[in-house]
Design a protein that fits this description.
About 60% of the residues lie in helices and about 0% in strands. It has about 120 residues and is an all-alpha fold. The protein is elongated, with a radius of gyration of 20 Å. The relative contact order is 0.18.
Length: about 120
């Protein structure tokens, strides 16, 4: 990894930024209740509208949790690339990821061409 690939930030600065991102997400996960099981019948929550709302709430909470875990996995993979000396290079073509793209999403594994 060279400075031309990752802009002006050093390896340690990228590491600090990625660890801070992961910590923020972990705090969100810790403060968020795991989704409970979906209501099984109308009797559990009252009428059909209330059940539909409860199911929607459950699905939204589960999806939010899943997305946060996915983001932690992306950050962990970026930290591994940083450790291995491949941070800032596209995992598909090995070409440099633009510094602007990394600044927006340091966990991105792809150059703009392969992000599509």
């Amino acid at each position: 990894m060279s400075k031309k690939h990752t802009g002006t930030l050093s390896t340690e600065q990228w590491k600090i930024r990625l660890l801070a991102m992961r910590s923020d997400i972990e705090k969100l996960l810790a403060g968020h209740e795991e989704p409970r099981a979906q209501p099984e019948s109308d009797q559990e929550v009252g009428d059909r509208a209330a059940r539909a709302e409860a199911v929607l709430d459950h699905e939204m909470a589960a999806e939010t949790t899943r997305r946060r875990h996915t983001e932690i996995n992306r950050i962990n993979a970026a930290l591994k690339r940083l450790e291995d000396g491949h941070f800032g290079d596209c995992v598909t073509c090995d070409q440099p990821i633009s510094p602007e793209r990394l600044a927006l999403d340091p966990a991105t594994p792809f150059c703009i061409t392969h992000a599509k």
